[in-house]
Design brief:
2 domains; alpha/beta; about 325 residues; Rossmann fold; 7-stranded mixed beta sheet; 10 helices; Quinone Oxidoreductase, Chain A, domain 1
Length: about 325
Amino acid sequence: MKAVIQTEFGDPSVLKYEDVDVPKIGKHEVLIKVAYTSVNYADIKKRIGNKGRGPFPLMLGLDAAGTIEEAPKNSIFSKGDRVIAFPKGGSYAEFVVANEQLVYKIPDTLPLDKAATMPTVSILSYILLHEIGQVKKTDTIVIHSAAGGVGSMLLQLAKLAGVQKIIGTVGNSNKENYVKRLGADVVCTYETFAEDVLSQTANLGATVIFDSVAGEITSRSIDCLALYGTLVQFGNSSGKAGNFKTSDVHSSCRNVKGFSLGTTRKYDPARLAPVADIVLDLFASKKITLPIANIFDLSDVIQAHRLIESRKYEGKVLIKI
């Protein structure tokens, strides 16, 4: 089968389109014929070596949409079932293997390309909003990197939940209209967001802030977080650690919560299935959607990575297998 692998860390040129063996399924695993996979910023970090070392050869990719090719006896899946999944060992390939607990059937009315936009960002976003942030309608929330995949989902889910005020931050003001179309009431740049949030809330601050950037954005988020507010930290796209002092939280009754979809896939996969059912229904009923910025062939994966790194896109970047 065709796949994209790398044998060293580096720029997009390390990604090689090659022939490899079709993987074999083990106990409680299925083989999936991939139709589409998405490109996530985590792929970029892993490609350049920011998410651990090897082992090589290494295949990138967090999620996939396709059809079941092979399933074990007594499986809930059958050949031909349309699914989304979190494969093991990457998803930039014609065939992938996934644990049955991380595979979810998709409604017949949901096209595979639309389904491919959602596994990582929509399941993560739903958990962040409803389980970790426990957002209420009366809240004022801040969504950092609002034009990105998770940001785009958080905006729509917050709007659907009737959240009172939604503030999105962007690195480029050219993305303001896009972010507002998805549900933001106010759009700020990273340079001024802390002051803008305080201005929008009569100096009370935001009740929940979603931070996937870290670095100095974390400390500046604390500066505009309300009493009893929650900072939800789920990434560090800046490549830098965020810092805060214990005195920033105890006397103000504020709290910081962390969440990782990768950790949950590994240690508590059963937690994801009920959420997958919810977001799949929301996508199938068109209550939420994620624009497709571009679709690249698997052989053109280098171009897909360059687009992600440019940050000059809105929505999800997909790879067609």
